[in-house]
Structure formats: C-alpha cells, structure tokens
Specification:
Length: 156
C-alpha cells in the first residue's frame, strides 16, 4: 500500500485539484487491476485514512487560523494551492416573528411528510384503498417505488 498512498509532501505541489483527483483515479485503477491488492482490505484501509485525515485537518484548523491571523495573513500560497482566511457570518432570524412562524410551519410539514412516508412504506402490494369515514369516498394510495443499490459500510 505504501507505493499507492502518497506520503505527506509526495503529491506534486504544482498539481491543482482536478489533477490530484485524476491522480487518485489513476491510482485507483491500478489498485483495481492489480491482483496483489485485496480490494476489501484496501477499501477499509482507505476509510481508516479518510477518518484520520478528516479529524487531523479539523483539529489543526483553529491553530492554523490563529497562526495566519497572528502573522496578519489573509492568504497563503503553497505550490498551486491557496489558503484564504475568511470571515463567516451566521444570522439568527428567530427574532422575526414571521420567519419563526414560517420555520415552525416548515418543521411541521417535514414531520407530516416523514409520517406519511412511514405510512406509505407499510403498504403491501402496489396500492391500498382508504375509505374516508365521513364522506365514504375511496382514495387509492400507491406504495412507493423501491430502488435498490449496493453500497459499503465500514465500521471502524
């Protein structure tokens, strides 16, 4: 695996994002075609690295921002990459009553949709007929279409 996964500093710093992604695709193709690699084990190892790098990046983010601000840097270039210190704005609209009312309605609609989806999932067969007890009207309700696809779940 050490010949496939690049160590820190081994990826050419003059490559942009698209070239790095292309490099990763080429390496993936080599892994897939090379019988020396057990794809099941490789996939798990890559997920382990993914978890590691996500946390590592997140953990050094605040210290990196502090260092950039300390050095009064708004941006920093390294190879073709550019790190930009930006200010993020977050708005709290809850003081506006109309916004709060709309937000509450949206939450209620989301809950209604969730409940309806649960009901629809329980329909056996293609449809079911529901009788309105007040009017006697019959409503035909159709079961949702189900599409299956394979995926991988890794529990570390």
């Amino acid at each position: 695996m050490s010949k496939i996964v690049k160590a820190i500093g081994e990826i050419d710093r003059n490559l942009g994002k698209k070239e790095i992604e292309a490099l990763a695709k080429e390496d993936a193709e080599r892994i897939i075609l090379d019988d020396r690699y057990d794809l099941l084990k490789m996939y798990i190892e890559f997920k382990r690295y993914d978890a590691y790098l996500r946390v590592l990046t997140k953990e050094i983010q605040d210290a990196t921002i502090a260092k950039a601000e300390n050095q009064k840097l708004e941006q920093f270039e390294f190879g073709t990459a550019k790190l930009i210190v930006t200010q993020k704005r977050q708005y709290n609209y809850s003081r506006d009553t109309l916004w709060s009312d709309v937000s509450q309605e949206m939450n209620e609609l989301k809950e209604f949709r969730k409940t309806r989806e649960q009901f629809l999932k329980k329909i056996e067969g293609d449809f079911t007929d529901i009788v309105d007890e007040e009017t006697g009207a019959i409503e035909r309700v159709y079961a949702p279409e189900i599409n299956y696809s394979s995926s991988l779940t890794v529990r570390l």
